[in-house]
Write a structure and sequence with these properties.
Layout (H helix, E strand, L loop, with lengths): L4 H7 L6 H12 L1 H6 L2 H8 L3 H10 L5 H13 L11 H13 L8 H13 L3 E5 L3 H14 L5 E3 L2 H8 L7 E6 L4 H13 L4 E5 L12 E4 L3 H4 L8 H21 L1
Parallel strand pairs: 1-2, 1-3, 3-4, 4-5
Length: about 260
């Protein structure tokens, strides 16, 4: 389906029931915030129900909330920033990164950062997972937290991730950096940690993944390597900027406690 879900909501606004219209107006009023919410949260905030939300999605051509949310995320992130019309690679590449970094506020909110920082600071143990290149992001967060006097461990192999997941509890926290959130790499340990009620914070660039309902927080960053084809740009720079935002909030909460 190629339609923009926001356009579909607007076009059908006056054909919805009272409850469906309340949901539609909530989404249209702040699409970025609505994208960060699950169906239950939106239903609660609009005084409706998840069933009403599903009916709304079906009326505008989607099978349900998951398909609607994926279409919403695609409409928000599928239009990459325009490249600078120049042969100077320095200007072209720095401009591309700058424009994608500017999209980060569309992906996360201050409430997100506050909730995640609070989880980390209250946790008995903090384990930061990343595989292959995203292990660099896990190491960066661990190192920067260490300089603040906050203890954490970075893990980069899936066998160790599973071993650790089997020891985690609801008073611990897992932070997972994964661009694509592939089930083949992370599925077993994510489900294991979820079964043990361990909070999981997923930092990814793929909104339509199998872990959405298993993690405590999911933040979807701009996907620069997928959205640009004229240069080999790496996604870790985006993760590194997110890390600085998280560290700023950690420092703020530490200083006020």
């Amino acid at each position: 389906m190629d339609q923009n879900p926001l356009d579909a909501l607007t076009a059908n606004l006056y054909q919805f029931t009272k409850k469906e219209r309340a949901i539609a107006e909530f989404i249209l009023g702040d699409p970025q915030y609505a994208f960060q919410c699950d169906a239950e949260t939106i239903a609660q905030k609009t005084g409706t129900s998840k069933a009403a939300f599903i009916r709304l999605c079906q009326k505008i051509g989607y099978n349900g909330y998951a398909e609607f949310r994926f279409a919403l995320s695609r409409s928000m992130f599928s239009n990459p920033p325009e490249a600078v019309a120049t042969d100077d690679p320095i200007l072209r590449i720095t401009h591309a990164y700058a424009r994608f970094i500017e999209q980060i506020p569309n992906s996360i909110s201050l409430d997100d950062l506050r909730a995640i920082a609070s989880l980390i600071l209250q946790a008995r143990r903090v384990k930061i997972f990343g595989y292959n290149r995203t292990f660099l992001s896990a190491q960066q967060l661990r190192m920067r937290m260490g300089k603040m006097g906050l203890d954490a461990e970075a893990i980069g192999d899936t066998i160790s991730m599973m071993d650790i997941a089997e020891t985690m509890t609801k008073v611990d926290v897992i932070v997972l950096f994964s661009i694509k959130a592939l089930d083949q790499f992370y599925g077993n340990f994510v489900r294991e940690a979820h079964s043990r009620q361990c909070p999981i914070i997923l930092i990814t660039m793929t909104p339509n993944n199998k872990f959405t309902d298993l993690v405590t927080h999911q933040l979807v960053m701009p996907y620069i390597s997928k959205s640009t084809t004229k240069a080999f740009l790496d996604d870790q720079a985006i993760f590194f900027v997110f890390i600085e935002l998280l560290l700023n909030e950690l420092a703020r909460q530490v200083s006020t406690n």
